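// run 5 | inverse folding | seed 20
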């Protein structure tokens, strides 16, 4: 490279992979110029071709693997590399867990400012394939082949890859996929959601539920252990959906309340509570940030735990501020997006109001970029009750 002028698109060069960025791309540098390349592994030496060049970075594709990593393995899916659903099938599973651990640690340090934070090893999934209980299949008209195709979005554009089976999906979902392909939608552009309903839970068709039944018991136990360890008497389950965490933890507290803005989910939560004969709590419909002051008048803040399991965009800033103003003794933040998690933790812990007591990642999404984290935050005793109103700006919508 000469001066500040990057190499042109189409240029080929050798690259040694340093790390994997969150999202799945391998990261390497040539003369301090950062290059992102899908499907590389740390330590590998690659021959790459630049596909996009910006002022401060470039993107590339692998032309040849000159020195493969011992962690490289044969992908199970024949569509891997085209389909955008998976990012890590070429990586041995133990190495996937190490990569995700490093990504979580780096994001919490870089975006959250937690330089001394420790992160537990990632809890592995007992079934790295055949675990997904929900998939969304897209239909698209292929004007070149003159036929309707069904599958998932490509990793590099918005076109659909025609897929007849998905190795990370439960076998029953692949059976559903076969039936849908035999009776396709009438036109392209229609999305079809396939799912296996969880046993014993009332669940509206489009409502959220954890997508991995195999590792779900470990997730529940992680949350229950944190609730049990805190000794909290009262529980508020924000973004409660169909009441999953509130009902799973109800036996550990005197009283609980679940809050969810989607009224259909609240109806299901009440049915799930009735089916279980649980009588020490209730569910209310509305935005969590609007309910927090009233709930923490009902439940003493110094004896109350808040569980929050928001969508990938993270918590709404007004909810973060409501937590900082009401100051419950403990917050359990369940997140499927480490970057938004880091942002929200930084806001919650500002002014030494809360400390991160433990971070436990669980691999609810093997072969993909995603990972679940349970973060245990405790209120710092010396924190002042008067807090600054500043919180990160961002998406302020409440999930449906």
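// decoded
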């Amino acid at each position: 490279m000469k001066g500040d002028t990057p190499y042109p698109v189409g240029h080929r060069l050798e690259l040694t992979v340093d790390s994997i960025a969150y999202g799945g791309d391998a990261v390497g540098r040539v003369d301090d110029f950062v290059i992102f390349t899908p499907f590389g592994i740390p330590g590998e030496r690659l021959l790459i071709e630049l596909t996009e060049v910006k002022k401060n970075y470039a993107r590339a594709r692998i032309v040849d693997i000159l020195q493969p990593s011992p962690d490289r393995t044969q992908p199970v899916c024949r569509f891997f590399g085209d389909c955008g659903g998976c990012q890590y099938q070429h990586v041995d599973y133990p190495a996937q867990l190490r990569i995700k651990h490093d990504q979580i640690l780096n994001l919490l340090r870089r975006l959250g400012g937690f330089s001394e934070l420790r992160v537990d090893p990632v809890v592995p999934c007992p079934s790295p394939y055949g675990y997904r209980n929900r998939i969304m299949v897209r239909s698209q008209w292929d004007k070149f082949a003159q036929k309707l195709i069904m599958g998932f979005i490509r990793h590099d554009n918005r076109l659909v890859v025609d897929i007849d089976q998905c190795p990370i999906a439960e076998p029953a979902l692949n059976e559903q996929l076969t039936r849908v392909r035999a009776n396709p939608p009438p036109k392209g552009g229609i999305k079809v959601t396939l799912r296996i309903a969880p046993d014993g839970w009332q669940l509206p068709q489009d409502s959220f539920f954890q997508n991995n039944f195999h590792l779900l018991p470990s997730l529940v136990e992680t949350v229950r252990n944190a609730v049990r360890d805190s000794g909290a008497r009262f529980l508020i389950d924000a973004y409660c959906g169909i009441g999953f965490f509130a009902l799973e933890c109800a036996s550990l507290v005197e009283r609980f309340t679940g809050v969810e803005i989607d009224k259909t989910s609240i109806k299901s939560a009440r049915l799930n509570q009735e089916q279980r004969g649980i009588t020490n709590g209730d569910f209310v419909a509305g935005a969590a940030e609007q309910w927090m002051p009233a709930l923490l008048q009902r439940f003493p803040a110094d004896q109350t735990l808040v569980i929050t399991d928001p969508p990938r965009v993270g918590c709404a800033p007004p909810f973060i501020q409501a937590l900082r103003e009401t100051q419950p003794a403990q917050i359990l933040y369940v997140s499927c997006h480490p970057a938004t998690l880091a942002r929200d933790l930084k806001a919650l812990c500002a002014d030494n109001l809360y400390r991160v007591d433990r971070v436990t990642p669980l691999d609810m999404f093997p072969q993909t970029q995603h990972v679940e984290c349970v973060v245990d935050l405790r209120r710092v005793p010396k924190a002042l009750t008067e807090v600054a109103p500043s919180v990160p700006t961002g998406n302020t919508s409440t999930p449906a």
